[in-house]
Design a protein that fits this description.
alpha/beta, 24% strand, transcription regulation, D-Maltodextrin-Binding Protein, domain 2, LysR_HTH_N, DNA-binding, globular, 46% helix, two-stranded antiparallel sheet, Transcriptional regulator, LysR family, single chain, Arc Repressor Mutant, subunit A, DNA-binding transcription factor activity
Amino acid sequence: MNLAHIQAFCTVAQVKSISEAARILHISQSSLSYQIQLLENNLDAELLTRTNKGVELTEVGEIVYEYGQTLLKLVENMKRDIESWKSGHEHLIVGASSSIGSYALPCTIYTFKEKYPGANIRLLVANREETIQRLLERSIDLGLIEGPVEVPGLVTRGVAEDELLLIVNPSWQGPDTVTLKELRTLPLIIREEGSGTRQTIARALQEQGLSLKDLNVVLELNSNDAIKSAVAAGHGVSLLSRLTVKAELGSGTLKALKVEGISFRTTFNIVYHRGKPMNNLQKRFCRFILSNPKAFC
């Protein structure tokens, strides 16, 4: 299978136009159409259907596009690692879920670079599922996320313990402790599908024989800061990592309540490929986080 044919097909799939894809790839339309035809012959399947508006992916085309994107990213990342090896300049790309990447890792990386001033580290923040996907695509070298990971080929090691707190507007007039039954009636603002915070809530509820459908979810947001602003404005309550609300609890702009009958504890884990060799920088960073209790700040 020719990698250039896959790249050509993925470009067409992205722009949904043979002529536009040909312009992007700097080749003729006939040459591009021929490459797509060769790929279809190789796979013995039709990948595109022509319409008045351009082209659409067939069901097989959707499958090929998904795998093709992953394959192209793997090749790109392989070339990056080879160039890094040739230059002798080690680098580290760390991916992290929102709670960890926005509130803990900047301090960690700063402390690490004080010890190793020449370290070349890049941090990419996304939600939990996106971070795992980037790790599988090898777009990042290490991941830091909440909760367990059961993906073949990935290794997880616990870094720190955390818990979700029920946060409310500081003008809250109710008791400082609520029951699980009472929690189910409160207007809850939660993170989006794929986030580690949401997974922690779902896992805790499952242990009680419940699900997210049993909660009074009024709003879903993909940002911890947006959720904190909504709660502070009195639009609802939320369950967020202690790490993300430490400053607000200290300043009094948010208040935390206890929830009886359920535990929202979780573990922050470092995740990496089982079979991928680490360079010296990557090894040092792993040791720094795993062996130094104060490193993960």
